[in-house]
Amino acid sequence: MDYERATRFEIGVLYESIHVGSSSSRWPLLGRSAVRGEDSIHTKHWALLFTTAGKKLRIELRPTPEGTIAIQQTRYDSQSIQSFPVGTFTGLRSDLDDMIAMHPMQGGEYSTRYNNCQHWLATALMFLEALSAGRSGRSFTVTHPARHSSLLGVLESRDYSKSSGILCHRVNMFLMTRAVLAQAAGIPVVAGGAALFLIVDAAEWKDRSTFRDPRIHGLPN
User: Transmembrane residues, as ranges (predicted)?
Assistant: First the structure.
């Protein structure tokens, strides 16, 4: 893919089932298997797939063994990979790197409930749209509005007013819970006080995941 030539990318989303693997670290390895339907997508791993001229670039959040967020890019030159179409982006290959660099979750702490691959993907689409509006010669078009809206549904208005453009991550109770991950890594889980823990944790993460919608407030400097 040419970094300096304007290119039209087809944007798709991949949904994959998640399997906990064994690991000696405190953060278990995650195995994946592709799914062909859109049932129960909030229990799945999400990844973006950019396709142009038969070449494909997969971009996704992958938690590190230390429990932090890393972004993985994988290039495919000929493999047939089925994704669900979302829209198109016309711009430079380097724009995708810029989108990753300015993403508010970059380098943060991973959480299956509050700071996961689904939150990352939805926010990435917002930043790519804002980047397209703010740079000459770029364009972003949503070709499947219902799917696009469903993906962005993992985000919510921080003060319940969409016009403010202050967003945060919606709690995901359907992806693997922190308790499941901890058990898989051999960490004992205490049942007592679990409800209070979730309430406190959710309030903390709502504050930590708050960001300005770049489509309204513009890209960060």
Answer: 179-200
Instruction: Dump pLDDT digits (tens) for 5-29.
Output: 889 999 999 998 875 544 444 444 4
Cβ atoms of 64 and 28 within 8 Å: the answer is: no
Structure tokens given for 192: 């007592």
- Burial class for 213, CB neighbours closer than 10 Å (0-12, 13-18, 19+): buried
Give the number of other Cβ atoms within 10 Å of residue 143's Cβ: 12
Q: DSSP code of 123?
A: H
What global pTM score does this model have? 0.84
CA gap 124, 215 in Å, rounded: 12
**Residue 112 backbone class (left: φ over 0; alpha: ψ -120 to 50; beta: rest):** alpha
Question: Is 126:152 a contact under the CB 8 Å cutoff?
Answer: yes
182: which residues sit within 8 A by CB, 6+ positions away? 188, 189
